[in-house]
Design goal:
Number of strands: 13
Order of helices and strands: HEHEHEHEEHEHEHEHEHEHEEHHE
CATH architecture of the largest domain: 3-Layer(aba) Sandwich
Structural class: alpha/beta
Radius of gyration: 23 Å
Strand order of the largest sheet: 7-6-8-9-10-12-13
CATH topology of the largest domain: Rossmann fold
Number of helices: 12
Helix content: 40-55%
């Protein structure tokens, strides 16, 4: 009798453990939305969606959103898929994302996420990795200057302050409320920089008018022997020393992992920087600055400028 009871209890415990294991492996059902786009941009979105599947334990349904789709259309589609979360890529209408956010977590991606409260994965690259690469290519640098708008990228600068301390750098962050203040901030920065000891970090913050400022910053950084580093490989093509920018498949995986965490903790808030990154390096700028990398270090960059003709 006692032996039978022990067997029964063991069987119940075994079933409970199996149930818990199955629950732990339960798939998170995620809807993925992106705006109707050109073939090139659509390919980028599809690369991100493909990366989401690498997260594991997710069930994905994806679709484009056109101007003809109403918020009710999209919500009905997500409900039909029994979605637990939505990943919104690119610049979708707030009417669409807000209607979904009332029913489930909405995680944003494939945009700069210039909003301190918006959950998602930004195109902005990890400050820790930025500073690690800076230390590799120019270990003499002591200060990093950056201009930002607190309401837009305060979250990124907060992470950057911690990362700078870990890498033995002083982060000099100038808060600016508009383009005029940002331009004035860069003028002051250029007056106080020291050749070989200072660097300027260009973020994706829209307060920085790069179309107007980049030619000036490229010229002055060249003349003053300053390191200029960026989030955009095209800045490197034009003369910045290096850039780190998102690997889109890795961004997809990071978005799916964030969605799973968001389902478990709906109150989780704010953006996070991209962690899976590619890199670009300008050898002409490096030669001018006296930066010397060995072959192994140079091969670690995904793109090297100036690009050799085929």
């Amino acid at each position: 009798m006692f032996h039978a009871r022990r067997l029964a209890i063991s069987a119940v415990l075994a079933l409970s453990l199996v149930s818990l294991a199955c629950a732990a492996r339960a798939e998170t059902r995620i809807s993925v939305l992106y705006p109707e786009s050109s073939a090139a941009v659509l390919g980028l979105y599809q690369t991100i969606v493909g990366g989401m599947a690498l997260a594991g334990d997710v069930r994905l349904q994806s679709r484009s959103v056109s101007e003809r789709d109403t918020p009710d259309d999209i919500k009905a589609w997500a409900d039909a898929n029994h979605s637990q979360a939505t990943i919104a890529l690119g610049n979708l209408s707030p009417a669409v994302t807000d209607s979904l956010a009332a029913a489930m977590p909405v995680i944003h991606g494939a945009s700069a996420l210039n909003d301190n409260d918006q959950p998602g994965v930004s195109l902005a690259s990890s400050p820790a990795q930025m500073f690690s690469r800076l230390r590799l290519v120019r270990p003499e640098v002591e200060r990093v200057f950056v201009v930002y708008k607190p309401q837009s990228t305060g979250w990124l600068i907060g992470a950057a302050r911690s990362a700078a301390r870990q890498h033995g750098l002083e982060l000099v962050a100038s808060a600016s409320e508009d383009v005029q203040q940002a331009s004035a901030a860069f003028a002051r920065i250029l007056q106080q920089t020291r050749p070989g000891k200072d660097a300027i970090w260009l973020t994706l913050d829209p307060v920085v008018p790069l179309n107007q400022l980049l030619p000036i910053l490229l010229r002055e950084s060249w003349n003053r022997h300053l390191v200029l580093f960026s989030n955009n490989p095209m800045d490197v093509a034009r003369g910045a020393l290096f850039a780190l920018y998102p690997d889109y498949a890795a961004m997809g995986r990071q978005l799916a992992e964030r969605a799973k965490r968001q389902v478990a903790r709906p109150s989780l808030n704010g953006p996070e920087a991209s962690e899976g990154l590619k890199s670009a390096f300008n050898t002409r700028t490096a030669s001018h600055l006296g930066v010397v990398l060995n072959d192994t270090q140079l091969q670690a960059f995904d793109r090297v400028f100036p690009e050799m003709p085929q």
